Each structure stands twice: as structure tokens, then as C-alpha cells.
């Protein structure tokens, strides 16, 4: 009986030892880099326990403006100190003299340190090139003057550039064939998401030293520089954003109290985004709270009278723009007397300049009788209903999109609505179900300014390797589908200019600007109310200079009272700013 029990215990012990051995084999030989469901890299974690490190660059690719300046990060020349300095003699006086930091400040900073740090973090003191050179010539172990990459506290074009974050589940879903740490940052919005596969890090650049259990140097005070040493990575995405114009645009949007809305500025020749501002801004402490993460310039909005440009284009092509015909602008589109905007009898041109709803409600009904798809066809010809961001085949991706967050626009939601005359008239003035993104509206203005040539909008011109050579180029590409004729574009150009030069035009505020402006205003009813007063979307979209078009600009203020301005002043100040900017380049 006793022997049987002893044998049983031996069997249990042997089984336990076998299980333990198997577990050790699993941990130390089989799953050393992908342990548990979280894919923990045990080799990395064990090294971390024996080292202290300062990451200089996380290895993720960067976004540059069109001139090559960093947009989402900045590189700062900083003084790096290692905590073992507090337990040894070193030439603190020399470092203090060169840097201008008092010895007491250096001592205090080290006293509180248990890992390497850049002096002054989170707002590190910046060293001059001369200071860096002198400090590094001292060759003090644990003291370094280096260039370190920091995230900007205020990222320019933040919604366009987008956010990154850690998401192990999404990382595995996107890159199941790649061996990546679950703490790898991935793009979750904007261009960070669009270009994510190209921006993934090859590894971090860092300063490392080995420590014992108490944090003391394990192999002396040798600090090693660790770098992926790949001349091609990380890559840089060269955007079309102009950093200087972006900074000034954001200042002007905030100066004119645009709390919901923003602007988009296009270079007409290259059809590229020079500046894009969306408000509200992202809450940096809690990015996913509120709607700050949403890029309003890529979201469909009620556009109001801006859509009359589409109706005008269709009317021109269908010979409904007879200059001798007069429209009764003393009436609303439903035939009731117009008390607030009683303009009397107006021609087609004057109706466009003064934005008479009756005229364009009537024209929309006539056009829909000719062809129930007429308004939709012309909205598509002017790039309002399709996605306008650059897309196509690059590298090993069949349908790459620069703007993954972009909405499509629309005119009608149902086939029945197209046949309804009341819906047609409401659609003709940009109400009912008509929607478009500010980016698409800017592209419409650029298309008209180019004489009807319809192109994709670029936000990036190329992807560059680390050494500066080009990986991918995003060339100008035509948007698919029909477009308006050069003749129709010329007629629209004159109409858009008339909005400004007409003494009663809705753009008369822009007559005295240094650049001649052509454009269209829009005030759209939203169906939202505040204290029993309806909120509106206020727009102005246009291009300039009129004779030699260079810029297309859309400014929009969303969900505001009809009496609230902002958009016209913002548009005017942008024109003045761009005029001065161009003068400075001459």
C-alpha cells in the first residue's frame, strides 16, 4: 500500500517536472518572441529589465511640408543626462558653463532621476550647435548633446495629418504577416492611417546602458547608441501643405471665432492642398472626446446657394440662360411674397450675383423635367458628389487613397425625390438632401478656374526614403467622368466674378482686395435650433486672382445664427495674407 502511494507520488512528481520542463522550453526556446495571447517578446522584456534607455527616435515615419520641414514632430538639440552621474565625480562645472544651466539645477535634476532624460523635459532646453559640439568634446560618460525627436504639442493641420495609437488587435488584423511588437504605434485617422503601412518603424534609435537590480551600471558606464542602421527607413511623406500658410490660416480661423468649420486652400495649378483647418480642434489630453478628431473639410455639409453654381452650369448647357429673360425675385420659391429679399425682376446673371432663390428653384424644376438626372449629372461634372482625394495604384497597393476619411456628396437620396418638383426647387438652392464636402467645393472652384479640367486633389506629392531618394510619386491625375466644357467654364467664371463686382452682389465685400476674387456665397438652413432660432451654415467659396487663377479657397462656419459673420472676413483676410505671402516670394 505504502509502495503504491510512493509510486503515485513519483508519477505525479515526474509529470509535474515534465510539465514544468515543457513550460520552460515553451518560454525559453519556442515562444521567446510571441509569448501568450498578447505576443509578448520575452527577449525584449528581459533586456528591458537589465537596461535603461532613452529613445531618440521611435522609428515611425514623418510628415513633411512641401518644403521639407517636419509637420507632426520637431527635432530639438538637447542635453541628455544619465542617472548614474549622481553617484560619480564628473565635470559638472564645464557642462554648466557651456550650457548656461546652473550646477544646482543639474544636481536637482539628477537627484530626482531614475532613468535617462533630456534636461528640462517635457519642455527641454534647446542647445545651439556650438554648445552641442563643446559638450560632446568633453567626452563625459553619461552626458550627451543630441538631436531628439519630439511630438509637437500643437500639430499643424492636425485632423488632416491624423492620430496614432497603440491597438494590438487592430495591429494584428492589419499586419498579420509582420513581426511587430504589440506596442507598435499605428495610424488611426487622417494621413497617419492612409500611409500607415509605409510609416511603420524598422526599430528605434536610442541610447542604452546596462544596470543591475539596484539600477547601478552593470558593465561600467559605457553607454551604447542603438540604431536600426537602415539607410532607407523610416520614410518621410512629403505633403503638399505649406507650413507657413498653414500656421497663418489656423491663426485667422481662430481670430474670426470659427468654432465649427474651417477652411481649405488649394493650389490650382497642381490641385494640391496648401492649408486645411478644421474646428473644433482635437482635445490633446483626450483626443476621442467630442468631435475634434473629425476633419470637417472632408465631411458632407448642407451647402445652400453654393449649389446654384451647378444649376447655372446645367442652365448654360441647356440654353436656359437667356439674358433677356427676367425672373420674379419678389417671390419665394413656393410663390409666396418675398419680404426680406425682395429683389424685383432680375436677369439670369443678376439672379446669380444676388443669389435669388426663386430663379434657381425655377431653373432646377425645368432642368429636372428635361432629365431627372440632370442636377446629379452636373454635380458630378463639377466634382461635388464623388470623392476628390488622390487615389490609384501605387507600389503594391491597387486602390490607395490619400484621404480615407473623405465623404461623398449627394443631390437626391431617392429616385422618387428626383421626380418631385418641390424637391427639385429646394435642391436647386442647395437645400433638401444636397450635401458636399468643403474640399469638393474647393475642387469645383479650381475646376472652373482651370477651364473645366477636373483633377484629383493631392495632399501628398511623394514618399521619400530616409536618404532623400523617392519611393513613390503622386502625380497629377484626372478625375474620372465627364466635365463641363471650356465654354461653360468661361461663362461660369464670368458669373462668379459678377458676384463680387455687382454693387448688390453677395460678394461685394471683396471688391477692394489686392487680388481680384471670383466666387459664390452660401447660407444654408440646417434644421437645427438654438433658443428657437434656426442655425445656418455660412459659406464663401472662390478663386483668385481672377485673370490668372492661383488659389481656390473655401471658408465655412457651421451651425451658427444667420446674423453671425466670420466667413466673409476670414476669406478676405486669407486673400490679403496670400497676396503678402506672394509678394515676399518675389
Compose a concise summary of this entry.
With about 575 residues, the protein is an alpha+beta fold. It contains 19 helices and 21 strands. Helix 12 packs across helix 18.
Explain the overall architecture.
This protein is α+β, with helices and mostly antiparallel strands and 586 residues long. Helix content is 33%, strand content 21%. It is built from 19 helices and 21 strands. Strands 12-11-21-20-19 form a 5-stranded antiparallel sheet, sandwiched between helices. Helix 11 packs across helix 13 (357-370) and helix 11 (308-317) crosses helix 18. The protein is elongated, with a radius of gyration of 31 Å.
Please identify the structural class as seen in this structure: alpha+beta
Mean pLDDT: 89
If helices are DSSP runs of H or I spanning 4 or more residues, what is the number of helices?
19
The strand order across the widest sheet is 12-11-21-20-19
Major β-sheet, in short? 5 strands, antiparallel
Kindly report the oligomeric state of this protein: single chain
What portion of residues belong to β-strands?
Answer: 15-25%
Shape: elongated
Unreliable stretches (pLDDT < 50, length at least 5) are 40-49
Task: Count all strands and give the number.
Answer: 21
